[in-house]
Predict the structure.
Amino acid sequence: MRLNNKKVIALVEHDFEDLELWYPVLRLQEEGAAVHLIGKEAQITYHGKFGVPAISDYAFTDIQTSEYDAILVPGGWAPDKLRRYPEVIKMVQEMDKAHKPIGQICHAGWVLISANILQGKQVTSTPGIKDDMKNAGANWVDKAVIVDGHLVSSRRPPDLPAYMKTFSDILANN
């Protein structure tokens, strides 16, 4: 499997978009990656917008980004909560500085905005936060998936197959 020996952070908080968390996690695991759900606290059950549970493996403070190869930020309403944690902002900034793959879909762009890493980047997101992305200095494009260096962005659940194929390809070559 091409993602053996790859470790990925999947951020989790209440009200994540169920498909936007679980589809990426399962696809990466199918390709051999170890994916850890990282939340404010370890071993807490977080619930998605549609009730699907996710139990965090570790707390934000339990991990070091240097031990991981990539990070995923799910959409839903969780990003509005995730961006309020200094630990999350630090994780995203560290991954950005190290040029490790950062995946964001739908409303996840809010976390990248708060991490102040979008200036001059080409991205996509749900059209609902297009203005937020542009105001953060990004060039917003309405496409299923956009790659700008190590940043992989996508719009919404119907785009998940293209998003995860692209993210997996970048992770495999990183």
